[in-house]
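Lesson 9: reading folded outputs for more than one chain in a single document. The general rule is that every protein is listed as its sequence immediately followed by its C-alpha cells, and records are never interleaved. Here is the first one.
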Amino acid sequence: MEVCQAILPCGGTQIRYPGAMFIGIVGDTHDNLPRLREAAAIFRDRGARIVLHAGDFVSPFTATPFEEAGLRVVGVFGNNDGDKLFLTERFSKVGELYHGPHVFSLHGRSIVLMHEPYALDALIDSAHFDLVVFGHLHTCQLRQGPPLVVNPGECSGWLSGSATCAIVDLDSLSAELIKLHGSSPR
C-alpha cells in the first residue's frame, strides 16, 4: 500500500496517510448520522482512506461514522460548529480539525480547505493550489482546473432535500459528485 504524507503548517507536523490517492469530501453534515454513515461507506468502498470535511459537523458525535469506517479526517470548523474544544477532542481519534482556511499538501498536491468561500476567486486565481475545497452554500459545485474546485454540497440534505458528497482522485485531479440514496425530506 502506498503511503502519502501530508505536510501541515502547524509547526511543521508531518502525518502519514496510507492510500490517500482517492479522498472523500463532505461538508455541512449537520448531525445527520445516517447520511454521514452512507458517505463514509461509499468512501471506504471506493478506496478512500482520508476524508476532507468542509465544516459544519455541528456535534462531536459526528466523529463516530468516521471511526466506524476506519477513515482519517482533515476538517475545518464551520459557522455552526459551536463546541470547538469537544469537537477537536472527539476528532483527535480520527484526524485533525482546524480553523479555516487550512492549507496543506497531500499526495504531492497543494490543497486549501475552508468552510465559507471567502476570497474564493483570489484563491483560484493565485495558482498556488491544485485543489480548493469549500462548503457553507449547501449546493454542489465542481469546476475542473487547474485548480480543481469542489463544494460537495450538503451531506445532511436538511436544507435542499438532496444529500451529496464527492470523491477526488488526487492523481488525475478529477472529482465525482455523489447523490446519497437516503436524501432527507425538507
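And here is the second record, again sequence then C-alpha cells.
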Amino acid sequence: MQRNKKIKANERYFSIIYSFMALPAFLLASLYKNKLVIPTEGKSAVLSAAIQPPQVPTAEIRWYLGENKKQVTIVVNQSTVAFLTDDQFTLLTSVLKACKLNMADVAIVNLANSAKNFTQLHQTLNTRFLLLFNVATSAIDLPFSIPVYQLQSYDQCQILQASSLNTMLGEETAARDEKMKLWNGLRKMFSL
C-alpha cells in the first residue's frame, strides 16, 4: 500500500515536470523536416514535402578565439589544429596569467585557417599589442622584419615576434631559455 502511494506520487511529480518541457519549434521542424503527419478521422496521412525550418539568423563567423577585451592579438600558424594544441593552449594561458591577462583579454588568430594581414587585424580587432608566434612579419604584410623578441612599434601597435610555442614546451634548458626570452619581451610590451 505504502509502495503504491510512492509510485503514484512519483508519477504525479514527473507528469508535472514533463508538462513544462517542450521542444522549441525550430528543433521540432529540424527533426521532421521531410515528413508531415496530419491525423484525419482516426487515420493518419503522411505527406512528404520540403518543409523548410524557420530561418535562424546566422551570426558572423568568428575567425579568432577569445573576446579581445584588451586588444591583444596573438597570431599563430597551425595547419593541423583550429588554433592551438592542448599543450600550447596550457602554456599560453599560463603566460597570459603571468601578464595579468586571460583568454577574454586576447584574440588568437590562426593564419592557417584565416589568412589576414596586419591592416585587417589592426582595423577589425583594434589591435594595440600584437604577438607573433613563429609567424614572420611578411606573412601579415608588414613592410619590415623584426628580430625575435625585440619589441617594435608600428601604427600605434606594439609588436613582438617570438619563437614557436612548441619550442617552449617542456622543462629542458632550451625550452626554459625560450620562455625567459618571451617573458622579458612581454615585460617590456606590457610594462610589467
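What the second record shows: The chain has a mean pLDDT of 82.
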